[in-house]
Design brief:
heterodimer; A: two-stranded antiparallel sheet; B: mainly alpha; 2 domains; 4 helices; 84% helix; flat
Chain lengths: 70, 133
Amino acid sequence: MRNRLKILRAQRKWSQSVLGDKLNVSRQTINAIEAGRYDPSLPLAFRIARLFEMTIEDIFECDDDLPPGP
Amino acid sequence: MTHQQATRRYFMIFVPSMIGYMVATIGVVWARDHADLPAMGLYVLAALPIIAILCTFWAHWRFITEIDEFLRTIQIKAVLFGLVCLMVMASVWGTLENLAGAPALDVFWLVPTFWLSYGAAALVITRRDGGVF
């Protein structure tokens, strides 16, 4: 998944540590999400969306077409 | 809870437990070799290092439940790698013992095998994925 977390964080002049504290996760977790190495769980994605007062879709975007279901 | 707090809580249990394990093991070996204890007495004494080592397992379990989801993913991947190494060692050597008459391997060595392979995997995955050492 791609995401706009880095841009949104920069707009607010928050460091990764500050954002991590606000979301109760580590700086490393924020770094991994921003770098696209880790896709957050749905509860964390909701917490991120609430913090930025946006929807999950406004922040996260799927890289490719979703694979077909069963 | 922050990663630092979880790590601190982990070491607050792990370090005393390992010290207790070493002291208890030395004590049990000394008692076995120098004191004329009944077999049941040795079993009771041997429970001391066992309890200490179980405390380290519990501390590790608690650590994994207290860190955040990304760091937990790294830990779980490392634990899975450690378990795979453990199962490979047990099944390969067990088969060699049963079918080829290989010398019996002390099951005690399964736990260090797990910790070493888990530790190596945790380092590699953390370095690759950007977690915390």
